[in-house]
User: Fold these one by one.
Assistant:
Number 1:
Amino acid sequence: MIERIQIRGLGVIADATIPFSTGLTVITGETGAGKTMVLSGFALLAGGKADVGMVRTGSDQAWVDGEWSVSPDSSAVKRAADAGAEVEVEAGRVRLLLGRTVASEGRSRAFAGGRSVPAAVLQEVSSSLVAVHGQSEQMRLRHADTQRNLLDRFGGVACLEALAGYRAAFAAWRGTVERIAALTDQREAMEREAVLLRIGIAEIEAVAPMPGEDVELDRQAARLTHAGTLLLDVLAAHDALVGEDGETSNQDLVSVLSRAVAALDRAAEVDSDLAPLLERLAEIGSLAADAAVELATYATDIEADPARQSWVEERRHALGSLRRRYGTTIDEVIEWHAAASASVSEVDLGDDRMRQLADSEVEQRAEVLRAAMHLSGLRSDAGMALAAQVTAELHALAMPDAALQVRVTTRDSLDAFAPHGADEVEILLRPHSGADFRPLSKGASGGELSRVMLALEVVLAGADPVPTFIFDEVDAGIGGRAAVEVGRRLARLSRTAQVIVVTHLPQVAAFADQHVVVSKGADGMVTSSSVTVALGRDRVSELVRMLSGLDESQAGAAHAEELLAVADLERASSR
């Protein structure tokens, strides 16, 4: 349960602490006194949207802090601990602190257990601690999605597990359908591309180029084209090294180096310092002799071969044609061929993939249908039970001839299914005998919608309990005997949960276990001194103000005393 909420700088509230007890707590006060800001504070603690317009004029920030007493086993405690909140157990309970700040420049921060957390964590933590219902929730009750979600909540674990199973099956099926559609579109484009790729592949395979072949053929072409001058130059270099026809002479380089080595060898016998130079000169001579041999060998290989030259030029032309289309070098052409072959293979394998996907789609379609029918059956059963229980609650809320009906319409075509199932859920109300059942979205008045919302929450409290319910003017549009019955039903709900109600009706306020009055100070601000727990005559005075607007009305006081007596009898009978 929530034990207190402290608010600073939020709307008309400068600084106020509001305590809460078990049972039913009502919050009353003049219009504009700040009751709505209390609900806004709860909304912020629940991870709601932070609006800079909430910040009190002249304040740097709005600040809200709530303190809960929670069981250590609560999912809220586990989620807060997972987010890094400090969790300490005292006397078998956890005091869980949630906080929220909204700066005047728009920045918002959230806290859990003294640690900064994302606002989404507050939403997750508070979802198992409190259910807040206001005018906006009543309006959402008119929407089909809200009505379907309420039915699934009422259906309990079985319905929610069936819904989760259906969603998983539906998502898998839709994913397969989308992959088939995407692959079909891709295949059309890939088939068109494959036609061109196959032409290129055939051209390359007809030529059958080898890696680096273009470079080697360029070298051969140059050699064949310049065979004559190349031979003369090589022979001239050879003769310079060893003389003509290999005969040594005094002018060739090898002979000159040989004489130099012989002379330096004699000198080295005299002076050993010349030995390194002798070695270098001998090495030069050896290199020159080797070069001469290689030149002679090269010269023997040089010959003018018109047939070979013609073949080389034709081959170079064929390779050049490939390079113009598929790459700047033959190596790049070969890489293109490999990539194109892989793409064509993928297209060829597409038929097998399409058959596999089609088989999977058939199996998944059957699973979606099975899961949808199972979920629809659970919803239909839950709808009848929900209608019966809410109808009974409406009778207790001064609508003795009212009846509720939950209509579950199941679509026939799988193509019309949605992620939430095959069903359209619609809640219909017959407010009195003689009237027709009409959808809540069309036929319910504000007062009727308020009582339907309350009746639904009372019924759902047993199926999906939370420790605290907060109602913002759930009694809107209600008066007289109906208001008394609303107060009585809230009091009964508070026997099993903490209930906090913001109300303008004395008939509801009279049933409270704790009556909190919010009022503005003389300066127009709400502070802690402006928030009081009304007891005894003060409570009677507040009920008189709510009844008649007159502080000293004797008739109003008598009426207030009567309302309190009725509430006391209700509490006594429910024990």
Number 2:
Amino acid sequence: MSDQLSLPSTWIPQDPYSGPGIRNLQDLKLDGNEGSMPPKNLLARLSEEDQSVLRDYPNLEGLEIDIADWIGVDRKQIVVTSGADDALDRVCRSYLRPGRKMVLPIPAFEMMYRFAAKTGGEIQTVPWENNFPTEAIIAALDKDVSLVTIISPNNPTGLVATPEDLKRISESASRAIVILDHVYVDYAEDDLTDLAVQLKNVVIIRSFSKAWGLAGCRVGYAIASKEIANVLRNAGSPFPVSGLSIAAVSLQIQESQALLDEHVNRICANRDVLTEILTRLSVKPVPSQGNFVFADFGEQANLVYDGLASLGILVRRFPHRPEIATGIRITVPENPEDMERLKAGLETVLSPEGILFDLDGVLANVEESYRRCVLETAQSFGITITRNDLEEAVLAGDANNDWVLTQRIMKSRGVEAPLEEITKQFQEIYIGTPDNPGLREYEKLLVNRNLLEQLSAHLPLGIVTGRPKAEAKWFLERNDISELFAAVVCMEDAKIKPDPEPVRIALTRLGIERAWMIGDTPDDLRAAKAAGVLPVGIVAPCDDPAKASAALKDTGAAIILDDITNLEELIL
């Protein structure tokens, strides 16, 4: 991993913590590492609880006994907390202060930086690249070190420490407290809990938020010697979790071990699949024993993150963390459908099989042709439309048919006319007559032909346009680029964008499944996204490029190109 991560001095948190994104119905949420959904009957069983579970202050004793019996320790060694975060915070507040240090292998769980910063203590970072840095940690120990943190499996990388690592550090740091953050241990090959409970200076932190699927309940716990447990118990609220959360966790412990095992087996199998997919796409994932895979994407990090987001797949980035600023952490999907969707998304972003182009505003400058036709057609019916009016109508969407768009704008100004009359007038202005050349003569090619030649030699190209077939053919032949496009889908071939049908037809004609689509309007991008194609925006010639760019961004463009030539560095 040494060639993947740069490890600078300690990152100092300044902005408030920003957690995983909010899930929308269309999103595949792979940014929070939550486990599988709990059994459907859990909510029903909770409804059978006595009402006092809501009224009374919660009693932790029953849950402490359940956890202690499950782990095999005395109940007084268990401290139930509000998620693992609360446990970590209590340890830091209890054993770290100005003049004291915590030794922290990095990259590390972000909250460790924040909890340490609150105490005024110092963080002594140690690079963790491949094997756990036991020797470097031992070398960093001095009289001021009061905490040593081992996060295993590590968040965000998924790397692990071995039993020998833990034992040596515990012995070497005999004057300090050793934190073993074991939140993701259910997915790991080795559980260090049995060893750790024998080491008097080790605090084990675990949680029901991950493999148990109860992150919303916010129940974590610490396992420690009775003396340390007493310190941690006094460092927090006597009622850290709700009675309903306690009931939910107790039910999970009693009845869900088989479900937990099945979940872990599926995740570990899919983790191997995701690792293979990334490797095949020339990405080097870190060997993970968590329910996630981390990889450094280098210069492609923004493209991958934004590209997946544009396809409704949420993953986790840490751009504010210098040591992992170009890394992405992907929660491993559990079910086959989500796994296939992630695979398709990664392949679409990193390995497209073709490129689709809108025609107007992308390949053809239509400011003085189609756009001007709308203005002059409306004027012929006594309506004055400004270019700004037209631009706002186009950016509002559902504007891929210029005849219908003209009619809609006229109607909004109080003038109604049959579409046939508007179309006839529009076409006469656009195509012209034998005595009066039409505005289409002003159309210019926006892209250098040499670039199109290079792209077509690398990947098959297609066009998805709302133009009539004859007008698309006229422009392509006039600019001598017809042979560079293996598929041209026009108005007569399918429903118009933003419907995804014309995009899907183009994919079929090209014989491919994965592609990027370059478009200058929200309609183009919506059609691409609905077809599972990467939506790439480009700002067409217009009066207000900033407004156009903002509209494309709001629509979910994976990238916004200032110029079509930017494709060269992205694709070739």
